Every structure is written in C-alpha cells, then in structure tokens.
Amino acid sequence: MKRTQLLIIVGALIAAALGIFSYKVTRLGFPVVPNLDSDTWTIEAKVSFRGRGDPVTLRLALPNSEGQFTVVDETFVASGFGVETDTTDTGRQAVFERRAQDGSAVLFYSAKLIAVDQRYSSDARPTPEAVSDYRRSERRRAIEENATPLLVALDSILTEALEKSAGERSFITQLARLSADESDDRISTIIEGGPPEISNASDRLVFLLNAAGTPARHVQGIILDTDTRQAPLTTWVEYWLGETWVSANGTTAEPLNDARTLPIVYDRQPIVAGDGFNRVGVSWSVARNFESQLSRAMERGSEFAPWVNATSLLSLPIDLQLVFRVLLLIPLGALIIVILKQVIGMPAFGTFMPVLIALAFRETQLFTGIALFTGIVAVGLMLRAYFNQLQLLLVPRLAAVLIIVTFVMMFIALAGEAMGIQTGLSISLFPLVIITMTIERMSLTWEEDGATEAMKKALGSLAGAIPAYYILTSEYIEHFAIVFPELLLIVLAVVLLLGRYTGYKVTEYYRFKVLANAGDKTS
Amino acid sequence: MIGFGPISKLAKSGVLGMNSRNLDFIAAYNPRRFYPLVDDKVITKKLAIEAGVTVPELYGVIRYGGEMNLLGRIAEKHRSFVVKPANGSGGGGIMVFNGVAKTGLRRMNGQIMLWSDIRYHLNNMLSGMFSMGDGSDQVMVEERLVPHSAFSKLAFGGVPDVRVIVFRGVPVMAMLRLPTAESDGKANLHQGGIGAGIDLITGVTTRGVQHNDSVDVHPDFETPVRDFQVPSWPEILDLASRLGHHIGLGYVGVDIVICEHKGPTLLELNARPGIAIQTANLRGLRPLLLPIHELPSVPEDVKQRIEIAHANWNGESLERFLAPGEEMRRH
C-alpha cells in the first residue's frame, strides 16, 4: 500500500518534471547546455586612489557603444563624489569630482555589455583615414627631396611586404612579420628614427600600417575570455579592413575574436587622468551573464506561455538569482548525502555536514578549502581540549569555541589580505557554526570512541565533501538547476525512492564479509 | 536483490543490513511513541518491575545541579553505586564508584575522583552531553551490579552483559559482551569489547569477535571465550522474552547483567539494537526474523514463546505454533 502510493508519487513527480522540461526545451527553445560563447557580460572597474586634501577631478575612460557591444545599465558607486559622463574626441569618460579628498577612496563602475550584430547596423560610419606623416604619396616625394635613412628603410619594408602579399589581408600579415623582426637593420633604423614609442611591437605595427595607408590604431582594453573575476588590461591593435575595424594581435596581426574584445581607450590615451590624487590603481573584472539564447527563450515564453516566465528564476533580480544559484544546488547535495549514507554507508559527522562543507569549498576552491578546514578544526580541537580542562559547562564551552573560531577566521582573512591572497575574502562565507559543531562532535567522538573513530569520521566527512564539491561546481549542473528547476522534482523522486531502499550498504559488504564467505563454505 | 556478486552472496547469508533493519523491522514494528519508554531508563525500570523482571535498585535521581548533594548522601549510605544519564546512549557518561574518600569518590580502578571533577561530570550529563536528542537530561544513581563469579576471568574491569534481540516477544539471537582493557571496562563492541555468539538453546558461547575479527581467547586473561556456559541461561531467555513482550516494541535489544546476588537483571533496553550481533554469531538475522514476521500472532505465554525461539533457532517450521484456524502471513 505504502509502496504503491510512493510509486504513484514518484511517477507523478518524474512525469511533471520531464513534461515541463521538454516543453521548455522543444517549444520555447531553452538551451540545454550552457552557451559558453555568451553574448552578454558584466564589466566592473574599481578605482582606488589616495587624495591629498585638495579638490579631486578624476577622469576614468569608459567603454563605448560604437564597437561590438552596446553598453547599458551603467552604475557608479562613488560616495561623496559628483559623477558625470563626458564624451570627448578621445572617447567616453566618467568624471568624478569632489571638493576635497583626504586619504584613500574607492570608486566603482559597472556596466552590462550586450553584443550587437554589426551586419544589421544601419548607420554607416565614415571610413577613417590613415594618420601618418609618411604616407606613400608623401613618402615618394620626400625620398626624392631628402633620402633620410628612416624613409629609405620604411620604403624598403613596405615594398617588400607589398611584393610578398596577394591582397590587403596578407599584406598586413607580411608587414607584421617584418615589423616583429628587430634584428632586421631596416627595423632598427625605423626604431631609431621614428617616433619614440615605436620600440614597442604593437605601436610599431600601428605606425607601419598607417605609413602604408591602412588606418590602424593602438587599443587598450579587456579580453572577455575568462570567467574569472580579474581581467587585466591588454593591448592589441585595430586596422581598417573591408569597411570595418578588425581587432588583431599587436605582434602577429592575427585577427582576434571580435565578440571577445572590449576596447576602452585608443592610441595610448590614459585610462585614468585628472588631478588632486596619487597612488591610483584600476582593476577590472568581467563576468559572463546569462545566455542570450535564454533571453530569447524568455521572450518567446512571454508570448506563448506566460506562466513559464512567471515561475522562472531568471525573472528575479540578478542578486537574488545568485542566491538561488547556490540554493538550488542544495537538493542535489541532499541527494548526494542520501546516496553516501544509505547506499554507500560512509561514516561522517552529522547528516548534512559533508554537503555543507562542500558548499563552503565552493567559495574557497577545493585545496585551499581543505587546508583551511583542517587547520581551523585542528586549532579548535586543541582549544576545546583546553577548555575541557578548565571544566566549562557544555553550552558556554561551545560558545567559547565558536568565538575563537571567529577570531581564527578573522586572522586568516587579514593575513590573506596582507599577502594578497584572495582566500581571505572568501573564508568569511565559510559557515562558522558548521566548523564549531564539527569541532564539538569530533572531540566528543574522540573522547568516547577514540582517535581512530574520530579520524575515520572526519575523513569520511571530507571524502563526502569532495565528490559533492565537484558536482556542486559543475557549470552544466548549475545551468540545469537554475534554468530547469523543475528537474529537481526528479531529485525529489529519487530521494523518495531511496527512502524505501532496504538493500545493503556498500560498507556492510566489508563489515559482514566473514558471513558472506561462511555462506560460501556451507552451500 | 540485484545480481551483483558480493552483494548477492551477502543476501544469501541472510545478513540483515542497516537499511532493512530500519525500514522492515524498526519502522514497521517500533512505534515512535514507545521510544521514550526505552530511551528514558527511569521509565524502563518502572515497566520492567511491572513485567516482573529484576532490575538494579534505584537509589536516586538528580534532575538539576542543586540536587547534587544527593550523591554525597547516597555515597555515605551505599558506598558502591553507578551514575548514569537517564537518556544515555552507547554507555556514554556512565561512572561506577565503590567507595567514599574525604576528597571524592573511589572509582573501580582505585583512583579517587575529586568532588569538583564529579560535579563537572554531572553537569555535563545534566546538560545532555551523553544523551540522545538534545537538551537536558537527568542523572540516575543506582545499585552497582556485581557480575557473576563465572565471569571473573572473562571480564576486564567492567560488567559483562548479554544482549538478546527480541522480536515480537520471541528471542531470536543473543551474544555475550565482554569488556576488555582496550574497551576501558565497557562492554560495547565498537569500543573494543568482545562479542561472543551464544547458542540460543543451550546458552553456550560459539565464537568470539573483537573489532570484527574472530578471537578465541580473551586478550587480557588468555581464557577461551568459546564453549563458555552462560549461567542462568533459561532465566535470561525468560526475562528477555517477558520484557520484550510487555514493552510494546516489536524489535528490541534487551541487555541483561547476570548478577552474583540477584541473578539475571535488566540493564537497559535498546529500540535500535545494532547489527554487529550477526558477526558474533556468524549467522544472519533475516532468516530468523522472517518466520516470526510471518506468524499472524504470538502467544501470550512466555513458555510458548521460548519454545518458538528454540524451534526458530533450529530452523524448524513454525507452522505448529499457529493457533487453530490461522495461516502464516505472506508478504
């Protein structure tokens, strides 16, 4: 009876989950795998500087909407500063102003970038002109008048590149190859005679391209190809080829993926300018946003099936979405625990400890996480042993361990910050209470059942946390959980089924091996 | 069962796994509301007396810190006694004293435990450190049972006991638990005590295990642990069966101490008895439990239940114990 009821519930859950899932995939086109070539990004800049007590004017270069991306949802966090954006001939800038700033200050800028397909862009933009004092027409005349070594070398390089090339693109590649070879006498002559900055390979390529009549410019910007938060400023070049600017590697002139390059300033314009401050530092970070295929699916959903959107987590604000990205992994964690406990029979402290530890490891990365966890638990165990000698009562002793663990975590955070290690920040999310409870349970087990048993359980907890960590950090699983939360009904169904599992645990096979083997002999 | 080699071998041997124990027997036969009856040893004691079972005499109960002076008065009067948490599990927190000194109480190993240490320990017990569930607990002070002299060369520094698994009032399997130096005088198997399987009919031990490994002699005395006749065996079965039937829990572990003076005496009941007893007996529980599960009813008379236990242990069919007109339950 109970069995039939359970099977009906399980069947209903699985049918509902698969039904909603397949509707969303086949009818609304929700992506089944996360789209790694995502089209939207969030970019953040953090500007830190020190004021001298004077009025401060700080100009921060901003990405503009002219290239592959449209910049939307710009926000500035700059308490005490007046902020305005300004577009000059050198690009877009944010201008932060304050009457007097003494001591250090931090300003934040963030924006969302949406890729725009340039092919459908209607406004034709004017063809740029190569900026150079050495353009071919002028060069010929100049050589005739006064054959300086620079002009001769320049002419020779450009002629060679032209002769070896079949078209404009291969001309650029040849030129880059010649330009990169600093052992070439002509190149060293150009470096000596040309503008000062061209000892640098990318600047030299820009110089040579302009001299050849191909408009080119030097770019500082960000390559959007990582999902890590830190995005260093990179330099590359752009040249005008076939009615459009092409981003390319500064040394080889190999084209870069336009969908992944975000120019910020051109021609060595400063990222930060202004006065009234010193010790300025700018750090950029980039995060990939939710797939545009998703937003298209959401749009389609709002026409055909409004209930899908109303129940979709993607309609929540982004910070809430981030919370759910973690929350929705908890059912999976629970499933892992059920399997570890009921089917495998892993010893561990408490029921959900391994998954909570794994969630904590998500923040710290696995290896730092394990190191921090063992370190803090070891310190806590020693302290608890000492408090036990002082004969403190149970609850105050737990509280004392909790307080000390807080301090240990504070010191680790401070030390990490001082040494420039990021783990310092993430440990603040490490669940404090879990560590304290682990310490208390572990020391109790230690006292009652001995060190072996305590170690066995501690290792069991960690061993459970590691597979859980890998599952909880999988990009695909996270995608599934947030885009298709209905699939968690299947997890519920499996958990319910395992709730009626009366078979053996894997560890019981080892425990009762002697009985299994005895059965062999008699039968 | 799935045709997975090692696991199916385990199934063939009739081993009762933890999952099956929990679902098929504990969840099916032990109503949750009866748990306090066995978890709280003060209540268990009352029930046992109702069932006509010998229990250790209760000297007093300490409910909160202010009542600790009671311990001093009991110590003066009885000299030898046991202190244990009423809701304790796995023998945690139990302290045995056999004398009074000026500075404290004398423990079994001759050491004096200072009053301050005793008070600290009692406080830990009262705050539920050794107890099931969370929150506070009570401390019981009761008579110290002197183990039967037959055990003098078999129990190191503690009290040996007999664990009988009783299913629907019928004893199904039993083992003798012997404390060792390693187990610190405790009879618990997972702390390094020895478990010896017992022939349910004769009360003679068949084999011993320590840490899941087969042992033939007690490590501290070198005395053999097999072929030992447990004293008062029929009375032990009688006690277990009587209490198991009375308590309302279908699947229960009855722990019995054979006292030199009082004979078989109830130590405690366990609503979730462990499955290690199978290794001690080298026999799976499942084939012993299923026939009793199939009985539509069990007799009220203790003697008849013990007859069933004997037949069951020998692997005989239980059909002859059916009441007129009854049939074995099929599942």
UniProtKB/TrEMBL annotation, chain A:
TM stretches of this protein: 322-339, 367-387, 394-415, 421-439, 459-477, 483-503
Coiled coil segments of this chain: none
Record domain 7 transmembrane helices usually fused to an inactive transglutaminase: where: 275-515
All copies of domain Inactive transglutaminase fused to 7 transmembrane helices, residue ranges: 23-190
Pfam family, one: 7TM_transglut
InterPro entries (alphabetical): 7TM_transglut, Papain-like_cys_pep_sf, Transglut_i_TM
Protein name in the entry: UUP1 family membrane protein
Organism: Henriciella marina
UniProtKB/TrEMBL annotation, chain B:
Alphabetical list of InterPro entries matching this protein: ATP-grasp (IPR011761), RimK-rel_E_lig (IPR011758), RimK-rel_E_lig_ATP-grasp (IPR039523)
Residue ranges of domain ATP-grasp in the record: 45-296
NCBIfam families: rimK_rel_E_lig
Gene3D superfamilies the UniProt entry points to: ATP-grasp fold, B domain (3.30.470.20)
Keyword ATP-binding: yes
SUPFAM superfamilies documented for this protein: Glutathione synthetase ATP-binding domain-like
Annotated Pfam families: ATPgrasp_ST
Keywords per UniProt: ATP-binding, Nucleotide-binding
Protein name as annotated: Alpha-L-glutamate ligase-like protein
